[in-house]
Amino acid sequence: MATGVCGTEPLVFRLHEGAPELVREVLLERGWEEFEEQQQEEGDWNLYWRAAAFRNSDYENTMPWQRLNHHPKTVGITRKDWLARNLRRMRGTFGSALYNFSPTAFNLPNDYVRFLEEYSKHRLANGNQGAYWICKPVDLSRGRGIFIFEDIKDLVYDCPVIVQKYISNPLLISGYKFDLRIYVCVKSFSPLTIYMYQEGLVRFATEKFNLGALNNLYSHLTNTSINKFGPFYSTDKEYIGEGCKWTLSKFRCFLQSLRINELLLWQKINNIVTLTLLTIAPSIPSSPNCIELFGFDILIDENFKPWLLEVNYSPALSMDCSADVTVKKGLINDLIDLLNYTEIDHFRQRGYLRQKYRRPCYLGSQILQARTPPVLLLPKCLCKTSSCEKCQGQSYLCSRGGSPDSCGTAQRPPQYCSDENLNCALQLNLGSSLKPATHYCHKKTHSPHSQKPKLVEGSRPYDLESENEYGSCVSSPGMVKENSKRKSGSFAKLPPIHGHKYKPPVYPWDYKVKNTGVPPSRVGDFILTFPFNEVTLRASQKKLNIKMAVQEVYKLTSQLIASGRHKGKRRKEEISRSLGGEDKLESLLWGPRNPPSLSDCCLKT
Ligand code: ADP
User: Fold this and answer.
1) Which atom of ligand 1 is nearest to the CA of 145?
2) Which atom of ligand 1 sits closest to the CA of residue 165?
3) Phi, psi angles (nearest 5°) of residue 270
4) What is the mean pLDDT of the chain?
5) What totals of helices (H) and strands (E) does the chain contain, helices first?
6) Nearest CA to ligand 1 atom 17
7) Distance from chain centroid for Cα 301
8) Which of 100, 134, 300, 308 to mutate to test the pocket of ligand 1 (most atoms within 8 A of CB)?
9) Which ranges in 126-247 belong to alpha helices (H)?
10) Pick from 325, 52, 45, 335: nearest CA to 195
11) 264 to each of 77, 185, 251, 297, 499, how far by Cα in Å?
């Protein structure tokens, strides 16, 4: 296996069948290696990427150096019927002034009577001319099974569907309908941390919009999977060009040419994303090793109101055209940066017995208690440090002597390690649960196969508060990968990581701006959009306070609208104060490439 940065082993990715080729390409370019099931131990990987959902056991068994590309239970927004139900519930709780961004929808057959009432209401109001409706199978994607109708006699379905009000006045470019694919990364659901990608895709229909031809899917649907088979896909279409995609940057140029209040549009889209994610955030089990990339489909109508059409799980990462190449490669690279692997993550397989240790994913925010105490393997070379030599005969028993270790020492009798060493070991073995040690020595002078780890039994509950105390004591892990399969019987146990009091785990990949607890406002082209001020930061910590978060979103939008109306009338300080003044957390504007802070934008308007 090649040696990676700083002499460490390269990071390893594991792709499940159906995972996008682009992910493999990007990771290989970054010097990662692909996991080989036949040759590598099961936990010997850093990133597991699946197009489909993970199993519960995958979440339960993740190690501190591992990340998964899905959070559990996000189906509440990624299935059309669940999304409709959840948004209706939020509208009931928080009112339709905010939750008014998704077209009225009915889940059929269950909501048939309600749909009939609404349908009749529209017919009565407009003479015999009703509204337009779109019918979509709830668990299909890529435009499959979708049709548009005006008359209820045309509504025929043989599986659960969602019937949604059809947005019949979309904004058109040269007569063509389009929607936006917005990429959103949820770094964490607890605390809720949302990043939006500045670049994205505009997806066009390939025939001009025509309400007189509801059956023509090339005119009404913007899915690439449909339009690339259309007769005009390769035609050079007026203003649009060939194919059916633009980058978001190109779209922004178009908006600027129209002299649109871009800031307000992007902020509305931000709000849609935040308010949608708030619908499920409290129900997502705490899963600190997970990240999720969603694709939000947004349609803009002729009044520049953005509408949420759906949220995609595992958005397509295929490369159909140059816009895809421009957007998606950077997207995956920035997503990997957002995962923030640190040096400590290169040291896989260092301490836990996978079968015994349970990450507290499914305990949500109630109690974080390892179901079974984790076990720790202490690499021999750790015990070679002078402090370890001192500790023989003290409290932690290294239950197996081992073969000549990687540090070149001869076989030893069973060893004892001090509290201090135990915590040093935890520092290493917990990897991501603790702050990484500041100085390692990556001497890789030993055969990976020659190293056998030492076993350490602990009797003192590990206190997260002491992590700094022991932070500097690791001088030379010098560890290398152990490839042989471990036997469960040969591990000693440590007490639970988390005591009785709930303390959220701290992962170095969950990096925060120093001393503030604030996630970085920008990673590559990912822009932090939630939390966006001190209040939302507080609202997202501990137990998510949805009401507070929703109110802040509302306030922000109102302020933005007001600041637009009062152009130049309000005094700078007044606006600045209303937007949070010196608040470093203030939401960044997501639209522009180099976004100024929101208050800056308002001050200029
Ligand atoms: P799928 O998961 O099959 O892609 P979508 O909900 O994204 O289903 O719908 C596919 C396409 O249909 C969208 O990209 C959009 O062009 C169009 N569409 C969907 N819902 C509406 C709607 N309510 N109003 C107008 N167009 C819609």
Assistant:
1) 3
2) 23
3) -55, -50
4) 73
5) 17, 21
6) 221
7) 28
8) 134
9) 217-220, 224-227
10) 335
11) 24, 21, 15, 18, 46
Residue nearest to atom 14 of ligand 1 (CA): 222
Query: Which atom, in ligand 1's list, is nearest to the CA of 225?
Result: 4
Q: Whose CA is nearest to atom 20 of ligand 1?
A: 309
Distance CA 362, CA 547 (A): 24
* Averaged pLDDT, 466-483: 27
Residue linked to tokens 């066009």:
204
Q: Is 455 helix (H, G, I), strand (E, B) or coil?
A: strand
Instruction: Give the N- to C-terminal CA distance of the chain in Å, as an integer.
Output: 56
What is the rounded CA–CA span in Å between residue 495 and residue 490? Answer: 17
Check: CB of residue 199 under 8 Å from CB of residue 243. no
Q: Which of 164, 180, 63 is nearest to 431 (CA)?
A: 63
285, 284, 289, 286: which is closest to 430 by C-alpha?
Answer: 289
Instruction: For Cα atoms 334, 340, 346, give the angle at the middle one, nearest 5 degrees.
Output: 125
Which pLDDT does position 598 carry in this prediction?
A: 66
The answer to whether residue 477 scores a pLDDT higher than 90 is: no
Calculate how far, in angstroms, residue 70's C-alpha sits from the geometric centre of ligand 1: 24
Rounded to whole angstroms, the Cα distance separating 32 from 21 reads 14
Neighbours of 246 (CB within 10 A): 24
Query: How many angstroms is it from 39 CA to the middle of ligand 1?
Result: 44
- To the nearest 10°, report the CA torsion of 42, 47, 53, 54: 30
* Cα 143 to ligand 1 centroid, rounded to whole Å: 7
Phi, psi (deg, nearest 5) at residue 566: -90, 30
Q: Within 10 Å of residue 566's Cβ, how many Cβ atoms? A: 13
Distance CA 433, CA 193 (A): 18
Q: What is the pTM of this model?
A: 0.75
Q: How far is the CA of 191 from the centre of ligand 1 (A)?
A: 31
Pocket test for ligand 1, best of 299, 307, 308 (most atoms within 8 A of CB): 299
The answer to whether the CB of 394 falls within 8 A of the CB of 421 is no
How far does residue 166's CA lie from ligand 1's centre (Å)? 9
Kindly write down the DSSP assignment for every residue of 366-406, as one continuous string.
T----SS--BEEE-HHHHTSHHHHHTTTSSEEE----SS-T
**What is the three-class DSSP state of 436?**
coil
Ligand 1-lining residues (CB < 6 angstroms): 103, 134, 136, 140-144, 146, 164, 166-167, 179, 221-223, 297, 299, 309-310
**Mean pLDDT of the 40-46 span:** 84
Atom of ligand 1 nearest to the CA of 164: 23
Long-range contacts of the stretch 560-566 (C-beta < 8 A, 24+): 560/263, 560/264, 560/267, 560/598, 560/602, 561/264, 563/602, 563/605, 564/261, 564/264, 564/605
Q: Are 345 and 54 in contact (CB under 8 A)?
A: no
Tell me how far apart the alpha carbons of residues 112 and 106 are, in angstroms, rounded to a whole number.
7
Model pLDDT for residues 524-564, shown as the tens digit of each residue = 999 999 998 888 988 888 788 999 999 999 888 888 777 76
Neighbours of 132 (CB within 10 A): 15
Residue 65: what pLDDT?
Answer: 87
The residue nearest atom 11 of ligand 1, judged by CA position, is 221
Per DSSP, 41 falls in state: -
